[in-house]
Specification:
199 residues; alpha+beta; seven-stranded antiparallel beta sheet; two-stranded antiparallel ribbon; 6 helices; 24% helix; 28% strand; globular
Length: 199
């Protein structure tokens, strides 16, 4: 049985390239995928593999095993950073799946979703309702049915310094309210299943 762990952060930003540039600025090894619901940040996280008879297969990993080994693995911290860039915040989805074989072959597990606003953790959101309201490709990426890089996602870590500078300068992603920041649209559009406009 293979264990799979990833997180995805749904942002309200229209331009995946600019979000990828911001991620690169923070030296985050993530993919950023453009979707109809906003740019999606995706990170595959390493999972500790134990021997067949290791008690941790039953009790779960030790606390030290779950400590992020690098900044990119800390989905909560990454969500806090990007939630500061928009008044709408972001939604962090953490995925724990098991790919089983044999009698009950398939993928099973848990998807948890939480809103982040202004750099702070907010309320939990029913993941099923959220996934039903957004671009279907998001669910397919989260469940591992498709890989983000096969859907045209941008690797933030692969961006050159010149590309990052050009993208951020052209988009006004430095928080200038006239630009909306990170390519955020001022037009009324659908986000998290709601119609949003200027407040």
């Amino acid at each position: 049985m293979a264990k799979i762990k990833r997180y995805a952060i749904l942002t309200p930003f229209a331009r995946a390239d600019v979000v990828a540039a911001i991620a690169a600025l923070h030296r985050l090894d993530v993919y950023v995928l453009a979707t109809k619901s906003g740019a999606l940040i995706v990170r595959e996280m390493p999972v500790e593999q134990y021997d067949e008879w290791d008690i941790r297969n039953i009790t779960g990993p030790d606390e030290s095993d779950e400590t992020p080994k690098e900044p990119s693995d800390d989905g909560h911290a990454v969500a806090e950073v990007f939630s500061k860039l928009s008044k709408y915040g972001v939604v962090l989805m953490i995925v724990d799946l098991s790919d089983t074989e044999g009698f009950e072959e398939g993928v099973s597990g848990l998807v948890r979703a939480r809103r982040y606003m202004a750099g702070k953790s907010g309320e939990d959101i029913p993941a099923g309702l959220l996934l039903n309201a957004v671009d279907p490709v998001i669910e397919r990426v989260i469940l591992g049915e498709v890989k983000p890089q096969d859907q045209g996602a941008i690797s933030a870590i692969a961006l050159e310094a010149n590309d990052v500078a050009d993208l951020l300068n052209l988009s006004g992603a430095n928080g200038d309210s006239k630009s909306g920041g990170a390519g955020e649209s001022h037009k009324k559009r659908r986000f998290f299943g709601r119609n949003k406009g200027n407040e």
